[in-house]
Amino acid sequence: MKILLSNDDGYLAPGLIALARALQAFAEVTVVAPDTNRSGASNALTLDRPLRLEQADNGFYYVNGTPSDCIHIALTALMSSPPDLIVSGLNQGQNMGDDTLYSGTVAAATEGYLFGIPAIAFSQVDKGWTFLEDAVQAAVALIRCEFPSLPRPFLLNVNIPNCAYAQLKGHRVVRLGKRHMSEPVIKAFDPSGRAVYWIGPAGSAKDASEGTDFHAVAQGYIAITPLQVDLSNVPQLSALAADLA
Ligand code: MN
To answer: Is the entire prediction scored with pTM above 0.90?
Structure first.
C-alpha cells in the first residue's frame, strides 16, 4: 500500500510524526507537509509566489505553502505514480461540523480527493497529546479496513476522542453537526497604539443532536463522516430560476 501523508500543523508536528511511524510498519509512506503550522488554511493554493520542496533528515518533505499546495506538488511533481490513499493528520484539535470548511487538515485530504484518490482526514479532539498513540492506533485500524464497499474516490473526516484506546467505545458513521456563529474577534493594540485583531474562538455547537459528529464524540465514539465537495444548493435552483424568469 502506497500512502501520501500530510497535515496542516507542519512537518514537525507530533501527530504527523507518530502517524508516519505507525503507517511505515505496513505501507510505503511519502510525507509532504507545510513547513509551519497552517491550521485554518482551508483549501488555499499559493499563487503569488514560488514554492520550494525541501527534504528533512528524517525523509519528510516540507513546503513553504499550504496543505493543499503540499498535496498538489506531491501528486504532480514528486511521486512517480499516484498513492493508493491520502492521509491527513493526525491533527491536534477537532475538525467537526462547520470547522471542516476552515480546516487545513480536511483540505489536504480534499485536494487528494479532487485528484481522484481516496483520502482520510484524522483529528484528535481537544489539544494536548496525552493519548496521541491511542489515536494513532485508532487511525491505523481504520486505514487497514480499506473500506472495500465505498465507491472510489472517497473523502472521510474522522474525529477521535482524546482518551485511551481501550476507553474508545467504537465508531459512529455520522453527519456533520452545526455551530453557532463564531465568537467576536479579540481586539488589542500594537506598541504604536494601533488596533489589531485576533480571530476569536469558533461558536459552540448548535446542532449536536444524535447522528452528528459532535454527539458521537461526546459519547466517546470515533466520529466518521463521508464528505463531498459540491456546494450547490440544489433545492434553491428552481426558486432562483423562477425569480430570474
Ligand atoms: Mn491543525
So the answer is: yes
Q: If you measure from the C-alpha of residue 149 to the centroid of ligand 1, how many angstroms do you get, rounded to a whole number?
A: 30
In a domain, 235, yes or no: no
Exposure string for 57-68, b = 16+ CB within 10 A, e = fewer: eeebbbbebbbb
Task: Quote the ligand 1 centre to 92 CA distance (angstroms).
Answer: 6
Q: How many angstroms separate the alpha carbon of residue 148 from the centre of ligand 1? A: 29
pLDDT, tens digit (0-9, with 9 covering 90-100), for 119-146: 999 999 987 889 999 999 999 999 999 9
- Residue 198 forms part of a structural domain: no
Give the CATH number for residue 136.
3.40.1210.10
Residue 193 Cα, ligand 1 centroid: separation in angstroms? 31
Q: Is residue 108 part of a domain?
A: yes
- In this prediction, residue 204 has a pLDDT band, given cuts at 50, 70 and 90, of confident
Q: Is the pLDDT of residue 20 over 80?
A: yes
* Distance from Cα 239 to the centre of ligand 1, integer Å: 39
Rounded mean pLDDT, 53-78: 98
| Ligand 1 centroid distance, CA of 109 (Å) | 13
Range of the domain at 135: 2-176+207-229
Total domains in the chain come to 1
